Task: structure prediction
Amino acid sequence: MANHKSALKRIRQNTVRRAHNRHYRSTMRTEIKKLLTAIDAGDADAAKAQLPQTVSMIQRVAQKGIIHRRQAARRVSRLASKVNALSA
Result:
């Protein structure tokens, strides 16, 4: 266990930030699952409606630094290509 005041404060900060990051990451994964469910069901209209919300959430999480910006771009690209393949 830490002995210095600054180390104890850092532990408290890390705990709060970890909970914050977990919340956003979980919300992002939920949005992705909603979109993938619509894609698997073959519902092109629902998938197209869900895509902007999912992309927005992924980009928001990347902007906060919870995931890397390239990982966000890769996720968005793959989801968009799945939606486009569904409608084609």
Observations:
- The chain has a mean pLDDT of 95.
